[in-house]
Fold:
Amino acid sequence: MDCNFNSIEIAEGVHFNSIIDKRFKTNKISINFITELKKETVTSNAIIPFLLKKGYNGCSDYTIFNQQLEELYGAYVASYVQKVGDYQVVSLSITSIDDVYALNNDEITSKTASILCEMAFNPILENGVFPLKDVEIEKTALIDTIEAEVNEKRIYAINNLVKVMCSNEPFGISKYGYTEQVALLTPETIKTAYDNLIKHSRVEIMFTGSGNDKTAIDVFKAKMSSVNRSYQILNPIATHSQLQQTVEQTDHMTVSQSKMVLGFGNGLEPSSNLITATKLMVALYGGTPSSKLFLNVREKLSLCYYCAARYDRFKGIMMVDCGVENQNIEKAKTEILSQLDAIKKGEITDDEIRNAALSLVNALKSVYDSDASIESWYLGQVLSGTNISPLQEVDKVNNVTKECIIEAANRCTLDAVYVLTGKEV
Structure:
């Protein structure tokens, strides 16, 4: 069942990563420009993939560009921005059917790889910069994206916890940047940011699907030979520095239900041997419907509408977020910490470990269900300097001992608490 992963360097700081899985009938190729999160560049970088998505030099008419994609059996492109640890990842992708399903031996993979190359490295420009009309459209869209965050109160609260907890770290920076910086963007400043991204960033190309990756490698090798690069090696992602004392922040807003997020640091590197045990501990603590937080804080004591734990292995941060009535905020906080203390003391049963492991194993096996999830898994492996398949991780989960779970829990210290509550409080 496991897929075949291979990575080669095709230019300085440019890797082509292949994940071959014959169950798919499609191939997805993505090009990911990876740079360090910095306040002065994050916003200008964030708008770039949405401008690149509009076509390429020689095909600036969006209608004609879409016709080209339709002729390639409905190939489609996507652009997105991610935050992985201290890195901002600016991505552009194209997905199409594999060559074996095309008529008349049509070489779909080679053509889609060429289109993606042109979009990334030969964008539409007017007088040497991005067209003003396109820039204004994408500036409006980016502002809408940033401002829309406040409408999703659960995500808004989690993001604010990260800002509070990592205020002195790049991880505390929003991946989309800031509205006041969007207003200052011009075609010229964005072109400068684009040039820096192309020249200096780390580039990870991901090929995910059933096809022959060699044709795509040849296309990218040929293109990269003509790109002027001066690769600057990135600083490794730094694990969150645990705080000396817990920081707390409360914001007031018109909300019908308060949101509380607790942030814990554990100081573990992404390649630590204790990472798998930490994942299992987090699942047992608050990652499943049979977890301690769900069964005790939500179901038994009815202190929260929801209460869940999640883990960011790149930064060594566990977060617990819950929706709670104002009068239950302190009670819920006390009980959430009490349930973690129980794990630290070894108050866990074999059934709890078994249920958490089953849930984690099911999640790991579901990684194979889509090209997007497999790509995300292996991009994470590449960026953390590891190379473990989901099935290999399953084996590790099944070998985690109770003692390792207790050790993982005891590494967690409460660093920050963020509460979003009603204006009347």
Remarks:
- The radius of gyration is 23 Å.
- The first helix runs from residue 42 to 52.
- The chain has a mean pLDDT of 95.
- DSSP finds 15 helices and eleven strands in the chain.
